[in-house]
Design a protein that fits this description.
- The chain is built from 6 helices and 9 strands; from the N terminus they run ααβββααααββββββ.
- The strands form 2 sheets. Strands 4-9-5-6-7-8 form a 6-stranded antiparallel beta sheet, with no helix packed on it. Strands 1-3-2 form a 3-stranded mixed beta sheet, covered by helices on one side.
- The mean pLDDT is about 90.
């Protein structure tokens, strides 16, 4: 079983490794590179009984997305340590912690110029509950995915278009501010899907 430093070295940009390992040592949390999940890029949990902090990040993310997600979750840990569980998960306390852990590595030696610019804008506009909520940032980060050519952002489709999530076909019925109302064709059920989600475009013949 690989150690946390070895996992971080395998998934992060070279210039961010020492800083990220230091955060892990200071935070004393359990870390895992998780299987890829459709609904989230990473998560943070705290067990009040054991006082154990756990952070997971999807292992299939590109190095820059992995780093941003890792720091997002570390900010949750910092918020819990400082304020307990009584504050809002993504309130002012978390936003402050996220900026605190992010700013030291907003450097050209860590991120390419396009990602660095998108991150600066993301931080200036107040970080959202998830980087997934910032479509502009997600689009820039997705340029570095190995399979970037296979996917399209839901935001770039239009009402009536059909798309795939895994093997399920959905049809867009309406767009809202950050999400789209979609019909699952096989079941007739309706779901809201984040506009920043990457999907495969389906056949227009459906």
């Amino acid at each position: 079983m690989r150690s946390t430093p070895d996992i971080l070295r395998a998934h992060l940009p070279l210039a961010a490794i020492d800083y990220s390992i230091e955060l892990w040592r200071l935070g004393r949390f359990h870390f895992k590179a998780s299987r890829d999940r459709e609904t989230k890029l990473g998560d943070y949990t705290f067990d009040p009984r054991t006082k154990k902090h756990t952070i997971t990040v999807n292992r299939g993310l590109n190095t820059y997305s992995f780093l941003v997600t890792y720091l997002h979750e570390v900010a949750h840990l910092v918020t819990t340590i400082r304020h307990g569980l009584s504050v809002k998960p993504h309130g002012e306390e978390w936003q402050s912690a996220f900026k605190e852990v992010m700013y030291p590595i907003l450097k050209p030696e860590v991120f390419p110029a396009d990602v660095l610019l998108a991150l600066h804008l993301h931080m200036f506009n107040e970080p959202s509950a998830s980087s997934c909520g910032d479509v502009a940032l997600m689009k820039v980060l997705s340029r570095y995915d190995k399979d970037a050519h296979e996917y399209i952002f839901l935001e770039d489709l239009k009402v009536g278009d059909v798309f795939l999530i895994k093997n399920d076909l959905f049809k867009i019925e309406a767009f809202k501010q950050k999400r789209a109302l979609c019909l699952q064709l096989a079941t007739g059920r309706k779901y809201t899907v984040a506009k920043a989600m990457q999907v495969k475009k389906g056949s227009s013949d459906v």
